[in-house]
Amino acid sequence: MRQLFSFSLLSFFSLCFAFLATAADYHEQLVLRPLPLSALLASFNFRSNTTLSAFEAHNFRFFPRSLGQILQHAGTRELHLRFSLGRWDAESWGARPWNGAREGGTGVELWAWLEADTDEAADHQWLTLTNALSGLFCASLNFIDGTRTTRPVMSFQPEGDHPNATDTNTHLLYGVLPHEVVCTENLTPFLKLLPCKGKAGIASLLDGHKLFDASWQSMAIDVRPVCPPGGEGECVLEIEQTIDMVLDIERSKRPRGNPIPRPLPGHELHCDTSKPYHSGDTCFPADSTANQDWSLSQVFGKTIKGTCPLTDPNVPPVCLQVPDARSVYISNGALEKKNQDGVSRCFEIEPETTDFELLLPSPEDLPADNLQAGQEVENIVKPETPLLYAERSFTGHGQERGGVQTILRNPSPDKEVEFIYMESLPWFMRIYLHTMQARIEGTSPSDHDPLIQEVYYRPAVDRARGTQLEVRMRVPAASTVFLTYDFEKSILRYTEYPPDANRGFDVAAAVITILSPNKNDTRSATYNLRTTSLLCSLPTPDFSMPYNVIIFTSTAIALAFGGMFNIIVRRFVAADEGPEVSVGSLKQKLIVPLRRIFARVKPGPR
Amino acid sequence: MSARPPIDNDTAADSSTVPTVTQDEDAVIFDATTTAAATVTGTGGGTETRDSPAKKQPPPEEASDVRRRTWVILSFWLVVVCLGLPIWWKTTTIYRANLPLDEMLEWADGKACRPVFPLRIAIQADSLHEQEAQNLLRLTQHALDDLNDFSGHHLRLQLSPPPANDDDKPNQNGDDTALTIRLVPGEATTATLDPYAPILDITYPPNTIPSATSSSSSLAAYVANQLRSTFAEEQAIISYLLSTNSMPSEHRPQGLTPEAAESLSKRTTRSLKYAPTYHLTFSLLTSGPLPSSWDIEAAIDEYMKPVLDVLSPIHNFTIDTQVQLYATPGVQNQVLNKEDLSSFVNAAEWPLSPSIGGAPTVNFILFIGNQTIGNPAELAESHNPDNESTASPSWLIPQWGTVYLLSLPHDTTHVSVSTLKQPLLTFTSHLLSLTGTPQSGSLPLRLSTLSRIRSADLLLRASSTLGSLARLSLALPSISIPSSVADGVSKTMAHLRLACETLGGAEGLEHARIAEAEAERAFFEKSMVGQLYFPDEHKIAVYLPLLGPVGVPLVMGLLNEIKAWRKRRRDRAEKAAAKKKE
Question: What span, in angstroms and rounded, lies between the C-alpha atoms of A149 and A68?
Fold first, then answer.
């Protein structure tokens, strides 16, 4: 909890800075946190503001013009866009960064509050917004159509302040593209939105090769209006760009010129010498991966190119969360400041510095006396236990029916967790709502004290909209709950299959919003998480079918017609009465007209 | 099977392997050919002729059977022709709305409308008597008509009543007066254009007033010359526009020299396509981290707003500004030469995306860096004919915008209004050039000229789009023409007609604009393109498996029936002949 607290404290402080110093309209920060199993979490955060008056006058300074234009054109009040890849391994990495508020499910996720008078107008603006964003971010966001758009009721709450918004003219729309593959073409426009363009400051570390090689990564863009508390001062429009990535240190350190892993020569292997069978030719790999040393240039391929001159000087650009006992080497021109919590330190970089390098030596390299004491001291900050673990999978077999099972585990020994579970399913998965049930592991579903407290369900309409299912439920302390329901698979039309139909259809991640235990504000979320996306296989036809059908029916019709026609029209006689047919007669039939033609042609020229 | 006698078995086998040649007509034909073969080949036909006497003839067919077969074949063909073909035709035909092709081509050829710009010029001569003024007017009109060689551009003089009050603003009586000439007695004959209003001040020595009887007057000739030179550019541009479009040669004005035509073509290609709204984007691009802010709003208000206000009857403007740091230009040379200028704008990296509202975007880039333009005078000559800003380190990119290079001290963090003055003045003059404003004359005159040029341009553009659409529909018979296209065409033509009637006024511009938009919409109708990619091979692949096996028995049946019918007729004729002989 302590680390989580420090993390939120840090973001809280930076938030305060943003409020206090309106002159500093931009700040950026990179938080590095080594994770167990040789992983490294890097959280990049860029935040810039513009006053609403400047925004409405189309004067853009830190706020990107290309995005601002789109927001104005589509009447967007608040926007959240996520590009994610990979899976957050909660069992070993613990709680998610930013409490899960800055991540999306695999693929692209977009939700926005639009200002429109009617639902139709909102849909129209949503279409404009997705199409424009699709062009800006080089993503297939324009495929977010009616079937992939839902209007969540309970799951999402606006993050910004909307002073003069009413419920009737603000519409929340949510769209998700689980199939979208996030890649470098999405990173480039993302970097272009930054004031320093990835040429200076922490953004200079971002490189498509490393980012999309990560075990898990999430790019987020959040635009929200923020008004100073108390009502004095002008409201600002804040854009926050976040990139979180979990790098496998071992993998990242592999040189770029030699990216293929090859077996190490025997003498370079780290062996666990305590094993009884250890000898010259047997080696049990030592679990030294947790204590690997790394430097910025090793894991990111480059160093930080100075600081962005626009950034708020009060916010240190780089922070590292390791126990204070570990020593860190930094390049000249930077200053280390240890925070009071004992598990994090920040680095201030002087403006003239051109390259900032940070090296975290492995604990083995430390002097011996430190190591002695370090047996008890953790080498890395122990990850925080998340409030809830969630896992979702398909059950059942066959091409016709299936089921979905979500396993929700509450690790806390004494606290109950209340949350909203949201699914937006494609229309071709028709769920049977009556089969939905939640049961605690080891017990049968019971009526008293139900786990499911509230269900919001909007059934799918074929080819027009998807299923929207929001369930408010709770998981008692230290127990595991199974949420299951069954569904039926529809048969698609021939043209509705994608080119790679046999791969299956992606089903978007379920969004779990954990509500604050404080009953007074049940609406506010304390922690978000998303399950992995699923791959649903539908019965897939053979795609040469139409041509086969044409040929087959034509042949059948021709056979039937030919037979019938001949029976009606022809005269049947005995075999010896009919004309004689043999090869010789056929030849004669052919040769005679040909001869006639030759005879006519030959004398022609004379 | 086994119970049957073997001879039956053989017959069945024979008839099943050769089912198509068991007809009696065939037998007859067969006989005919074998005899023919026997006569032609002589000895070779021996084998066939030897067997023929042994052949059994089938019993003669009953007449009712023959008739029934005829009916069967006829009814099959009746169904195919009367039901099958129309259904096939109806379901596969492509909808083509009726377009008034002739009329459209007429518009494109300029036969439907002759653009005429009647310009009314008021003469205000308070110091002259009515009679004298009328006389002067007549003489001047005469002189003008003599000078004018282009009938499309017509200056018509009229006497304006003396203003009731003494304020300097004419045009109170009507907006359609293009220019007011104010005749004031003075020392010598001089002419000056009022810079703020469409007024030409002409002073004249009192003795130059023509008498009532004189047929020529130096003052009249002078006024006529002045008027002509004032409108010379407009006339040249309009005649250039007409000549580049497919106007019939008799309407084409003469006297446009190739050099003049070339400079005009340069200027027209530089100007943006007409749109009611333009979006102006001001970008401060810096090669390094500084400066990162500018007083652009105040600067625009001070230096550019007046011109935008003046242009507002013709165009609306929306403005946005942005600051972009660490912008790398496309060319890294310290000194830029002429070739570098075209690739200076780094389109891949600079976020200069056009506005999404649909209005064309004009980009004004202020680039802070230490690059300079080599030999600015020469470049200015070719890129920037406006003499006012020869030395400015800027260049105009046709139909796109302007780049202005500014070098500032390294530690400048803020660009002030005074620093922005020169760039913004340059941007303003380039904006006028980008909108296609003519370059000579006072500003109000240039603007009224602009609106006339734009109407003519839009009118011609819409006409030529109509022509293209007509030619397209003629050239591609397989293209579908939905009714929305026909709608658009009729709307276009209605507005073109109105525009043609009211050419030169504000209404004319509006009609021409609507006509152009409708014509473009009709031409770029999406559903017209879809049918194009349905190749004939595809159709054959779909039809052949069905039509082949069905069509062959049908056709063969018909052919055999015709043969049989002809044979029957011949037999009947022979019989009749034999009867006659008897």
Answer: 23
Chain segment A359-374, per-residue pLDDT in tens: 888 776 444 444 444 4
Average pLDDT, chain B: 75
Sheet holding A429-440, edge to edge: A389-395, A401-409, A480-489, A429-440
* Dist. CA A390–CA A91, nearest whole Å: 10
- The size of the A-B interface in CB pairs under 8 A is 164
Residue A593, min C-alpha distance to chain B (Å): 9
- The structure's pTM equals 0.77
Q: Where are the domains of chain A?
A: 2-255+266-373, 389-536, 549-601
Residue B106 tokens read as: 């007429």
Tokens encoding B314: 């013709």
Cβ contact, residue pair B320, A561, below 8 Å:
no
- C-alpha to C-alpha distances, B308 to A22, A229, B195, B268, nearest whole angstrom: 33, 40, 17, 21
CA distance B578 to chain A (A): 28
CA distances from A279 to A272, A284, B388 (A): 10, 10, 89
B324 touches chain A (CB under 8 A): yes
| ipTM score above 0.90 | no
- Distance, CA of A504 to CA of B91 (rounded, Å): 37
As given in the structure block, the two tokens for residue A236 are 């600002």
pLDDT at B215: 67
d(CA A286, CA A268): 12
CA dist., res. A325 & res. B192, Å (int)? 87
Q: From 2.60.120.680, 3.30.530.20, 1.10.260.40, 2.60.40.740, which CATH number describes the A389-536 domain?
A: 2.60.40.740
Instruction: List the 37-56 stretch of B: residues with Cβ below 8 A of A.
Output: 37, 40, 47-48, 51, 55-56
- The answer to whether residues A78 and A223 touch, using CB atoms and an 8 Å cutoff, is yes
3-class SS of residue A563:
helix
Question: Mutating which of A53, A544, A566, A573 best tests the B interface, going by the most B Cβ atoms within 10 A?
Answer: A573
- Whether the CB of B551 is below 8 Å from some CB of chain A: the reply is no
B565, two tokens: 């019918």
Q: Report the interhelical angle of B218-230 vs B232-244 (nearest 10°).
A: 50
Considering Cα of A467, then A87, then A127, then A129, what sign does the dihedral take?
positive
d(CA B237, CA B221): 24
Taking phi first (over 0 means left), then psi (-120 to 50 degrees means alpha), and beta for anything else, what does residue B115 get?
beta
